[in-house]
Design a protein that fits this description.
Shape: globular
CATH architecture: 3-Layer(aba) Sandwich
Strand content: 15-25%
Strand order of the largest sheet: 2-1-3-4-5-6
CATH class: Alpha Beta
Radius of gyration: 17 Å
Number of domains: 1
CATH superfamily: Alpha/Beta hydrolase fold, catalytic domain
Largest sheet: 6 strands, parallel
């Protein structure tokens, strides 16, 4: 008797393409992988709920697993409010707005992000340099390779929704994988996660073997 495969849907980080998942390895006889790309928001005013419903429409199997990286982690949590899922797995993300670091809360409250020039928003590496300093300067080459979404409306919409996510309590049935050296969402603000030693915000690329193993074990 053939065992039914577990379907896993992956959502990449803010402005990233699904290429960020290229180093993950899963047994083909056990898992069927699906990689979602970012949709463009209908407008800057489209609600996160409505956007997540559109993304969820691409999940064709009942009780699939959703995996999201960074902002993609926020999206898969919102998607799970529209469809029945087996499990939601977060990588380098947050489970509620209480896990946002102080730096991003300041940017949100002071609305500094609105002062950032539109042409620079389109250059997403520039935004990360602006918001995260030296960390981003070391990552520009990687950003150029994996951050492929350059639509200005999408970028403004996404940055706004990271900063203004209104989820106050974590959802149930979540597995949260987080690096101990994550520079965007420092682990000191994160609760109830599986810590990856030396893992940074881009560990989906350079710690893919470890993350694959954690995901597989969490589903067995």
């Amino acid at each position: 008797m053939t065992k039914t495969k577990t379907h896993i849907y992956f959502v990449p980080g803010l402005a990233a393409s699904s290429k960020i998942f290229e180093y993950l390895k899963f047994p083909e006889e056990q898992f069927q992988l699906h990689f979602l790309e970012w949709l463009l928001p209908i407008s800057e005013k489209e609600s996160l709920n409505d956007y997540a419903a559109r993304m969820a429409s691409f999940v064709k199997e009942e009780n699939a697993v959703l995996v999201g990286v960074s902002f993609g982690g926020i999206i898969v949590q919102e998607m799970s409010k529209h469809i029945a899922v087996k499990k939601v797995i977060l990588v380098s993300s947050i489970k509620s707005n209480k896990e946002l670091p102080k730096r991003l809360k300041v940017i949100q409250k002071t609305k500094i992000y609105k002062l950032f020039p539109a042409h620079a928003i389109k250059n997403i590496e520039g935004f990360f340099k602006y918001a995260f300093g030296d960390y981003a300067k070391k990552r520009v080459k990687i950003y150029r390779e994996y951050l492929s979404v350059r639509d200005e409306t999408y970028l403004k919409w996404a940055i706004f929704n990271v900063l203004h996510w209104n989820q106050k309590k974590p959802l149930e049935n979540i597995v949260h994988i987080h690096g101990t050296e994550d520079e965007i969402f420092p682990i000191k603000y994160i609760k109830n996660c599986i810590a990856v030693e030396k893992g940074t915000h881009i560990m989906i690329l350079n710690r893919a073997k470890k993350i694959s193993s954690i995901i597989i074990n969490s589903l067995n």
